[in-house]
Amino acid sequence: MRMLRFLTAGESHGPELTAIVEGLPSRLPIRSALIDEQLRRRQQGHGRGGRMRIESDRVEITSGLRFGLTLGTPLTMRIRNRDWENWKTKMAVEGDPPPEAKPVTKPRPGHADLAGVLKYNHDDVRNVLERSSARNTATLVAVGSVARQLLAPFGIRIFSHVVEIGGVEAKKFPKTLEQIADAAELSTVRCADPEAAEKMVEAIDQARREGNTLGGVFEVVALGVPPGLGSYAHPDRRLDGRLAGALMSIQAIKGVEVGLGFTAARLPGSEVHDEIGYDPEKGYTRDTNHAGGIEGGVSNGQPVVVRAAMKPIPTLYKPLRSVDIHSKESFQASVERSDTCAVPAAAVVGEAMTAWVLALCFREKFSGDSLEEVKAQYRAYMEMVSRR
Amino acid sequence: MRMLRFLTAGESHGPELTAIVEGLPSRLPIRSALIDEQLRRRQQGHGRGGRMRIESDRVEITSGLRFGLTLGTPLTMRIRNRDWENWKTKMAVEGDPPPEAKPVTKPRPGHADLAGVLKYNHDDVRNVLERSSARNTATLVAVGSVARQLLAPFGIRIFSHVVEIGGVEAKKFPKTLEQIADAAELSTVRCADPEAAEKMVEAIDQARREGNTLGGVFEVVALGVPPGLGSYAHPDRRLDGRLAGALMSIQAIKGVEVGLGFTAARLPGSEVHDEIGYDPEKGYTRDTNHAGGIEGGVSNGQPVVVRAAMKPIPTLYKPLRSVDIHSKESFQASVERSDTCAVPAAAVVGEAMTAWVLALCFREKFSGDSLEEVKAQYRAYMEMVSRR
Amino acid sequence: MRMLRFLTAGESHGPELTAIVEGLPSRLPIRSALIDEQLRRRQQGHGRGGRMRIESDRVEITSGLRFGLTLGTPLTMRIRNRDWENWKTKMAVEGDPPPEAKPVTKPRPGHADLAGVLKYNHDDVRNVLERSSARNTATLVAVGSVARQLLAPFGIRIFSHVVEIGGVEAKKFPKTLEQIADAAELSTVRCADPEAAEKMVEAIDQARREGNTLGGVFEVVALGVPPGLGSYAHPDRRLDGRLAGALMSIQAIKGVEVGLGFTAARLPGSEVHDEIGYDPEKGYTRDTNHAGGIEGGVSNGQPVVVRAAMKPIPTLYKPLRSVDIHSKESFQASVERSDTCAVPAAAVVGEAMTAWVLALCFREKFSGDSLEEVKAQYRAYMEMVSRR
Amino acid sequence: MRMLRFLTAGESHGPELTAIVEGLPSRLPIRSALIDEQLRRRQQGHGRGGRMRIESDRVEITSGLRFGLTLGTPLTMRIRNRDWENWKTKMAVEGDPPPEAKPVTKPRPGHADLAGVLKYNHDDVRNVLERSSARNTATLVAVGSVARQLLAPFGIRIFSHVVEIGGVEAKKFPKTLEQIADAAELSTVRCADPEAAEKMVEAIDQARREGNTLGGVFEVVALGVPPGLGSYAHPDRRLDGRLAGALMSIQAIKGVEVGLGFTAARLPGSEVHDEIGYDPEKGYTRDTNHAGGIEGGVSNGQPVVVRAAMKPIPTLYKPLRSVDIHSKESFQASVERSDTCAVPAAAVVGEAMTAWVLALCFREKFSGDSLEEVKAQYRAYMEMVSRR
After folding, report:
1. Which residue of chain B comes nearest to D32, CA vs CA?
2. Which of D20, D32, D127 sits opposite B9 (nearest CB)?
3. Which of D193, D68, D136, D178 is nearest to D349 (CA)?
4. Which sites bind NADP(+) (chains A, B, C, D) (predicted)?
5. Is B78 helix (H, G, I), strand (E, B) or coil?
6. DSSP secondary structure string, C135-184?
């Protein structure tokens, strides 16, 4: 059985979203305010449409926590959908459909709509989009925040920054990763290069005016990751594989990189690998981190660096051609309200999934049942490492 | 429990590699000659060093098959390491280490060597590299060949082609995917663009002369995938996430894309999504396949297209700086024998992992216990789909 | 990944219990009234104490269902703890402990109390008992009711009856299994032998007067199970092993049997095995069902019959000796309010876990994504079976 | 992912049986001689037929071990079927069936034969029985021996003794568990009560003369299990449920008990629960162990005690009625060679499965990657426990 696992649930316009996280050690401080803070970060960013203002997500924890400390039992988080009152009859859990609940019959290109209708034999595209919607990344962010709070006592910190939107690339970064983190947090497009940020905002505004949408690339960095998470012993234990799987599972993500990523494919070997040094005080050292902190599927003690490419949101003002699933007639899919760019929000979801995978691998190595026990295990290992 | 699962085992210079595949339906024809054919494909490609000639892998099936048909029971595959005779004492399973088995103490940058030593508390880097070695992808190819033979009766075919090596990009492709498959198969670098292939060969030869290594990018395509594999219902059920996780788990892979991948992040929404048409005979149609056959984490009936970026092999003739784990002294890591480029081989491994993930998702949808039952399930579903 | 999985959460005196069930097909009718009916059955039975009157459990479904049909997405069920108002401060999720929340320091023999304190490093036994409590079987019953509703369209029906309480054995049963089911449902001790039932009631009343508690044995029967669920192909796929694991996981269960169970160990082989007949209309037939419907880990088409032994509830009016975890002083553990016998309730939980395991194995064989697809798969298989 | 997992494979008359164990820490001593010793124990016991003499199982380890220490990588074990030479053509992996390979068409009551034929759509009962055969418990014993060797450095020792055969019960036991272990080891029926053992041997001889078979009950005891393995936090984490599931998955097992088991259902609460004492030197103490070392699904530091009921072997000299699957004609199933009683052997398999589950739960608590790390984790926890 997995050391740490979660299930999430919830429809986009249903009463609420729910997540259960199982496998936390006992006596770990978890603060709902910190989860709310992550939920808030997910709802921000230049380029979001109207719905973000309706939602102002707050988590309610209903199990697994007492007086702010975990009990070692499953943690339940609920996030109410603030709009539920308006959807009560159209999304009623039981009872007959009301006359106003007309089925959605127009699948949108680029969404799960058509594939979902075929797979699940639905007559109403709403039955697909309610769950495939990016709204549901709110639970992932909540789960990720719990993972962060598990990693925090061990000095592991995760941040993200946007490196590209609609073809505009960030180029000038602050010197340290900590500074990049701080700069990104202050930017409305989560970009640490102020000049590029400005151009990204312009590109988004321009796209909005044209009824178009933009994608981009974000980078997630984890600091303080100890060496030895993940394994090469079996393919499914590798840290890089699990990170890639988790990031690619976020809505609209179409590419994932670790370290140099695709750039590594273009360089000769002599420029790609991170030479190894040794310092009596710090242990093994590296001057570069092209590997993104992972060699052979195992964390090597350097910052873990991953990147993900998000496609533009497929819900466009500009019409795309599609086919009505009942009449089979062609139509022009267009919408009245949507986000123009959600890359800064997706970066926050990316942080959450990265935190989750790191927490999972962390728990596989430090499996103690109470925070005190996990700490003792961590110390014992770090002491062993320091002697190597 | 998983519908379909495998474990692989084996050290690079141990007696043999082993794989067990569990969850196959009964009465499925499996031919070891087809597995051998895939093993052979993995061992080819311009840019390989000497070892490939020592190995000439053949599979031996020792369970799960009788008279060429699966029994519904676990299938065991053994691949002997031809070089074992020379390693018998240095890699002895039991008994004391012989005097000649001096520990390897020099971790190579870019390999699992150092991270593995720290994680597993090894004194001998050999204890890491024997398993982290790409040699072990032979079992993945064998497992993938079984997956292919499971998918074949349903018209699902998987091929790969190399689209970039050392910065040289393939640009002119044959018209159809089938033609690309055929052209790649004839190329020593598995590249369907003959001009690019020639330049790739030159780049490899040049790199070899310089004691350097090259990476690249390959694309895997799956034809005949029915709509409805994978799911948006829970993040870990998504087809794209699982494909990315499996591909990133292959040695030396640092990036993965689905469909347009990173390019999608640079284009406006109006140019990214695949418009939907309808043809009374064929059902829903698409003129483009930017999504790579996956929308919302679910296959949509189009060819599934993924790409992976491989870094250059880190074992260089050109020295890289590293540190002896015993003496802590710096040294220049250099080797006498190695591959220069293994991208064409990695592409074959990529096919295998793609086949595995598709087979897994296929089994989750068509879970019958005998081939006849799986076929009846497949037919019933395709008939339902055709009526939508 | 599992075809069907669930997570449950919730503390006994926390705000609510939660369950998420993932892996249901779409378009399956689920009625919360049927879940409530099962929750009600769990709360009944002669021998229950006061708390059962406080609780009157009702489920609230908050995801996965629309207009009474599943969406193919995770189903969330919430069951509020009616007593929560009185526990709000002592079980507060966050904030400091109030002065009145004195830690429980007296572990009760026969409960998880002491083992839980040691494992999770708790200072307060309440942090253990809140989750280890049998209160949490309410979620299992809710999950089981969903499983029943998945199995019902395929004619699979599950019932239970109590065959022993405090040494009083049921002996005279109605002729058919259906009649046993009906008789048990009418009995306050869920016993189909009215004479034995009367003696069981007396034994319970006597035990209550003496401040003692009673255990017993219940039997769960599943009718309509098709042949071929479970497998001998790998140990963890066996139906009998999974049923035993699930039943033994219910609080206070100390023994599990399939079919003849321990009696089979005492009889010669000639009296144990169920001879096979054939009827052109019905197919293969059996005159006996000593195997309890499972041969070689696979259902054989006969009713599945399992039994479980429940120990007496360890919370006694009669004192048991224990040790305060803070002072290490010995004390006499006694309580003021408790159930005397919970075997009839446990039987309902046993039905739920049996339903769950059958649903799991059913989904592994009939994995379709919509109810229509599952039905087509079921029909195709049953038709194949009828031709054998 | 599971901390520790295995897959086994192999047909009874195929070339060999195989097992892969994944998730072992590195640097753990594993001796194949200790595995062979367990394989030998499985092949013994009064009441076995001729095949046991053909087989004389020896394991060959082909991966995961070097110079007698684990590498932290998957461990492969092969056990050759000595009879393979005689079955080469009838059980050929590939190629056409030879004329002499006539299908077995007569399913034996009490075996997986008929259920397996229906499930997997086989025409030849041999395709079922080859894998459902108890022969395959050899791999479980090998896997269990590895688990034992993982637990041994932590003072955990597992033994078994037969407490009942064919209705003959063991009654007088040596005083200590260690003495019971030793006495059982010396008995040809693995029974620690010499008088009962003699009667068991007589009962077996009598049954053999009558062409009948006998079942029985064995007990498995694990000494030195630390408190805190398993959990009440989620049903599937419970130690008792996992033990029951594993034991019930052994061929021919129909009942499982923990501690008092079914007897607990008959006693009043005041006689069932183990009172808790405290000794400044030893910590918490118990005078009794009715719980079998598990309370609330968690080990409590007492010996873990489980029992399993084995039905008589269904392969009888005495004929049982069955039906030919091709002709549908009734026949009398009888055999020429078989065991009369395999309870002593099953007890050894029971030890193996108990060892496996304990190792699994042990690894979930002490997940270190090297033996040194696991030891540090174990010490840190035991020290924490000693302070409670």
Report:
1. B94
2. D20
3. D136
4. 42, 48
5. strand
6. GGHHHHHHHHHHHHHHHGGGT-EEEEEEEEETTEEP----SSHHHHHHHH
CB A316 within 8 A of CB A338: yes
Which A residues, 325 through 344, put their C-beta within 8 Å of a C-beta on chain B?
A: 325, 328, 330
| Residues 160 through 199 of chain C touching chain D, CB cutoff 8 Å | 164, 166-167
Residues from chain B that touch C369, judged by Cβ atoms under 8 A, are 228, 231, 365
Is C315 annotated for ligand binding?
Answer: yes
Is B312 annotated in a binding site? The answer is yes
Place of tokens 């007396």: C202
Question: Which residues is D216 bridged to in the sheet?
Answer: D165, D310
Interface of D with B in 367-386 (CB under 8 A): 369-370, 372-373
Listed residue (C232, C230, D92, D357) closest to B74, CA to CA:
C232
Structure tokens of C336?
A: 């003021």
B27 touches chain C (CB under 8 A): no
Please give the single-letter amino acid code of residue B284: Y
- Are B372 and B153 a contacting pair, CB within 8 Å? no
Contacts of B365 in chain C (CB under 8 A): 367-369
- Cα–Cα distance between C72 and A124 in angstroms, integer? 13
Q: What is the ipTM of this complex?
A: 0.97
**Of residues B246, B240, B285, the one with CA closest to residue B264:** B240
**Total residue length of chain A:** 388
Distance of CA A1 to the CA centre of its chain: 24
| b/e map A16-29, b = 16+ CB within 10 Å | bbbbbbbbbbbbbb
pLDDT in tens, C280-318: 999 999 999 999 999 999 999 999 999 999 999 987 777
pLDDT in tens, C326-336: 999 999 876 65
- Cross-chain Cβ contact A369/C120 below 8 Å: yes
**In DSSP terms, which residues pair with B226 in a beta bridge?**
none
Cα gap A207→D301, rounded to integer Å? 66
Query: Encoding tokens for residue D228?
Result: 């805190």
CA dist C208 → C94, C195, C196, C339 (Å) = 39, 20, 18, 9
Instruction: Check whether A50 has a pLDDT greater than 70.
Output: no
By Cβ distance, the residue of C26, C65, C97 closest to A94 is C65
Classified as helix, coil or strand, D170 is coil
Please report residues of B whose CB lies closer than 8 A to that of A296: 111-113, 115-116, 128, 132, 251
- Which domains are delineated in chain A? 5-387 (3.60.150.10)
CB interface of B with C, residues 213-272, below 8 Å: 228, 231, 233-234, 236-237
Q: A118 and C368 in contact (C-beta within 8 Å)?
A: no
CA dist., res. C256 & res. C247, Å (int): 7
In terms of CA atoms, which chain A residue is nearest residue C13?
A63
Chain A / chain B CB contacts < 8 angstroms? 349
Q: Which residues contact D235 (CB under 8 A, 6 or more apart)?
A: C8, C140, C246, C249, C250, D241
Interface contact A69, partner B, CB < 8 A: no
Contact across the interface for C232 and D131, Cβ inside 8 Å: yes
Write the CA distances from A170 to B272, C16, C383, D228, D344, integer angstroms. 22, 47, 63, 51, 72
Q: Among A307-316, B177-186, C21-30, D84-93, whose mean pLDDT is lowest?
A: A307-316
**pLDDT of the residue at B329:** 95
Nearest CB to B110; choose among A232, A295, A312: A295
Mean pLDDT of all residues belonging to chain B: 95
CB contacts under 8 A, C 124-143 vs D, are 128, 131-132, 140
Is B249 close to A238, i.e. CB distance below 8 A? Answer: yes
